[in-house]
Amino acid sequence: MIADVKKSAEQKMQKSLEALKVDLSKVRSGRAHTGLLDHVTVDYYGTQTPINQVANINLIDARTIGVIPWEKKMANAIEKAIRESDLGLNPMPVGETVRVPMPALTEDRRRDLIKVVKHEAEAVRVAMRNIRRDANAHLKDLLKSKDISEDEERRGQDEIQKLTDRYILEIDKVLQVKEAELMAV
User: Fold this and answer.
1) Of 30, 113, 114, 167, which is most buried, counting CB atoms within 10 Å of its CB?
2) Quick one: 87 and 141 in the same domain?
C-alpha cells in the first residue's frame, strides 16, 4: 500500500515537472526554437487548428523561424495568428514562407523574464509540497484504518520526503538552465 502511495505521488510530481518544462519553453530567450509556436492556433476553414498541423516549422538560422504553409493561401492566416499571439513577434511573409525573426532582448526584459521563470518554478515547488502533503495524509488514513503500522507510516513519510527533495532539486536545475539561457547574449 505504501508503494502505491509513493508511486502515485511520484507520477504527480513527474507530471508537474514536465508541465514546468513546457511552460518554461514558452518563455523565449534571444534564440529561436520551433516549440515557441506550439500553442499558436490558426483559423483553418473555420476551425482553430495548431499551426504545426497546417505548416512545416523549421529554423532558418539561430534567430529566425521559418513557417511554410502546406496550402499557399494559408500564409496570410498564419502571419495574422502569429502576430496576434501573446508572443510579441512580428512575422514577415517572404514568398510562400512566413519568416519570424526573434527580436533581441534588452537587459531589463531579460530580468523581467527571469522573475517570471522564478515565479513559475516556485508555483511548481508549492505543487510538489501539496502532493507530499496529500501523500502523507493518505499514509495517516492507512494508519488509522490499521492497514499499516506506525513504523511503516514513518518509513513511508521518509520516502515521500526524499522523493519531494529529489524533484525540488530537479526544479532548481531546470530553473538554473533557463536563467543561464535567458542571460546569454
Assistant:
1) 167
2) no
